[in-house]
Design goal:
Layout: E1 10-17, H1 21-38, E2 43-47, H2 52-58, H3 64-71, E3 75-80, H4 96-105, E4 110-116, H5 129-132, E5 136-142, E6 152-155, E7 162-165, H6 171-186, E8 191-196, H7 202-217, E9 222-227, H8 228-237, E10 244-247, H9 249-258, H10 260-263, E11 270-274, E12 281-285, H11 302-314, H12 319-334, H13 348-357, E13 387-388
Parallel strand pairs: 1-2, 1-3, 3-12, 5-10, 8-9, 8-10
Antiparallel strand pairs: 2-13, 4-5, 4-11, 6-7, 11-12
Helix pairs in contact: 1-11, 1-13, 6-7, 11-12, 12-13
Bound molecules: nicotinamide-adenine-dinucleotide and manganese (II) ion (MN).
Manganese (II) ion binds next to helix 9.
Length: 401
Amino acid sequence: MSIHNRTQPIRVVVLPGDGIGPEVIASAVSVLQAAAAAHQLDLELIERPIAGAAIEAEARPLPESTLQLCRDADAVLFGAAGGPRWDHLRGDARPGAAIHGLRQRLGLSINLRPVRAFPALSSCGPLRPEITRGTDFIVVRELSAGAYYGAHGRSGEGDSERAHDTITYSRQQIARVVGFAFALARGRSRHLTSVDKANALVSGRLWRDVTSELAADNPDVALDHQLIDSFALRMLQRPSALDVVVAENLFGDILSDEAAAISGSLGLMASASLNPDGGPALYEPIHGTAPDIAGRGIANPVGSILSVALLFEHSLRLPELAAEIRTAVDAALDAGARTPDLGGTSSTAEMTAAILAGMSQAPPARRGEASAASPRRRGAASPSEGNRVPVGPLPDGENRA
Ligand code: NAD
Ligand code: MN
């Protein structure tokens, strides 16, 4: 059934988190609401504290009731986790345990991180425009295994103190993410780059073996094996040659942060975390809580807003709404809207307003209707299920220019 004629509202759990998380997620929510209103989608938002904010409110970073809400949702929109206030906490008590727990408990083993060179920002980043021009690739990061989930340990004292983290991959875990990357490449330019460290790591050897075997089943996609160390350089030398890049968890994390240099700022980068077997997916900017700028209203909201575009594309199967959001972001950048990380002076609210101004507007309210939205939107909420974000017209001045 299409999103347009289903009887249940689209339910999105909103988890702003800490630091600049609430600032950029407020922007993302206003874009999500504007797109839904303009296309008469019945949207239900449920907002909950997560990570540090949940430690303060409910004494744990990922309350079980919040996890259950996420399981029952169509999608989860996440801000960022952590901050100096909670740096003394360890293990499952840490704010970061919330995002790792969500990934694990929702089976989110695939993380998509698109990398684009925005034409308007060609002089914002550290790379020359002739190098970044035309860059449009996607990093597929394995999200459920590897060093973050293998055996960890710390023992001994003084000079003999030691610590270890273990990279463990099964054939099935590798085949799941690489198979997904092959399928993704098939729908794009049919070029897959697999990144590993097969010359030094046994897990890298297995990664390369499984990937080479899958290549035989995908003869229409050109496969290229690259070693992580030299690829980290090559990615910045010729980014426009890339189409789909697949890597294990730790390498994918590092490469996608590095790739922010191509776009111009970490604040521009979006991500989607998917369960390849279906179920709710999670959307978040790739940046953290940025304690150095939190509370000042100057965080770049684009990474979070483009995460909403990914939500429309992957969870709601409405690629035309995703395209509309991306076009509105490009138009705002073309018109000169820039937060300080891009060398400008726009506030988060001004940047958001510039993007909203480029989106299609809700049709005028018909007689007898309280708002421009579909009649189903109101009254669909039952008051027992958590704190709902008001789903209605945007605050004055935020849109409708
Ligand atoms: P960070 O991404 O928070 O910040 C790195 C730099 O980029 C900072 O200078 C920051 O000001 C800037 N920056 C990041 N996002 C921005 C935005 N939207 N607009 C403008 N500038 C932006 O990384 P960090 O400083 O290494 O970590 C800070 C905290 O965030 C730590 O507690 C860390 O654990 C946490 N963290 C959380 C996540 C997550 O929730 N997924 C990811 C990374 C880091
Ligand atoms: Mn990272």
